[in-house]
Design goal:
The chain is built from six helices and eleven strands. It is globular. Helix 2 packs across helix 6 (108-116). It has helices at 33-39, 44-53, 62-67, 81-85, 90-93, 108-116; strands at 2-3, 7-16, 19-24, 74-79, 119-121, 132-135, 140-144, 149-151, 157-159, 167-169, 172-177. A four-stranded mixed beta sheet has the order 5-4-11-10. A four-stranded antiparallel beta sheet has the order 6-7-8-9, with no helix packed on it.
Length: 186
């Protein structure tokens, strides 16, 4: 068993009066944003989108960047799987069949632009989320810190999942949202 990609269990299942202790070979540090995303099945489509966007040009090397403990810090608004592929997800909303370069698919360049709308430079905890304009790496969105919502330039509202905020990693913080944030209309 490996924890956060580095620590391994040397001595498992040591019973104590108040629980069970597993002895590890090193201090377990905070995970990176990538560790959180890749280990959470509810974010698997986001991980697929990040990997797909990395195939395009130009692109941000998403996977390498969010895996790098020295990068950032970043604040990531991470859409759940249904935000992409659910019946009311962005693919259905835009009448697209999935990620790809064919007709009726969400291509890598557009995926890249959309993903940039979910990343903010800095480590912004939910208590520090402004009420009003927020500059993402892809453009401006509007935050309502009392309703815990984000509104994109298209008037689409994403709810921040209040039970999944302030997920702190070594290179930033993740707040889970229920809707994909889109780029401004062209």
């Amino acid at each position: 068993v490996m924890l956060n990609g580095s620590a391994t269990v040397d001595d498992a299942d040591n019973t104590a009066t108040n629980g069970v202790v597993h002895i590890v070979d090193e201090v377990i540090g905070l995970p990176t944003i990538a560790t959180f995303a890749t280990s959470n099945p509810a974010l698997s489509v986001l991980v697929d989108a990040l990997a797909y966007a990395d195939t395009g040009s130009p692109t941000v090397p998403y996977i390498n960047t969010v895996s790098d403990a020295e990068a950032g810090p970043f604040t990531v608004f991470a859409p759940v799987n249904d935000a992409f592929t659910g019946p009311n997800g962005v693919l259905a909303e835009l009448n697209l069949s999935g990620f790809g370069e064919g007709t009726g698919e969400l291509n890598a360049a557009t995926t890249d632009a959309v993903l940039l709308m979910h990343i903010v430079s800095g480590n912004i905890q939910s208590s520090g989320l402004p009420n009003g304009a927020v500059a993402t790496l892809g453009g401006e969105i509007t935050a309502d810190n009392s309703a815990f919502t984000l509104t994109d330039a298209n008037g689409r509202v994403s709810n921040i999942v209040t039970t999944l905020v302030n997920i702190q990693g070594m290179n930033g913080v993740v707040h889970v949202i229920d809707k994909v944030i889109l780029t401004p209309p062209q």
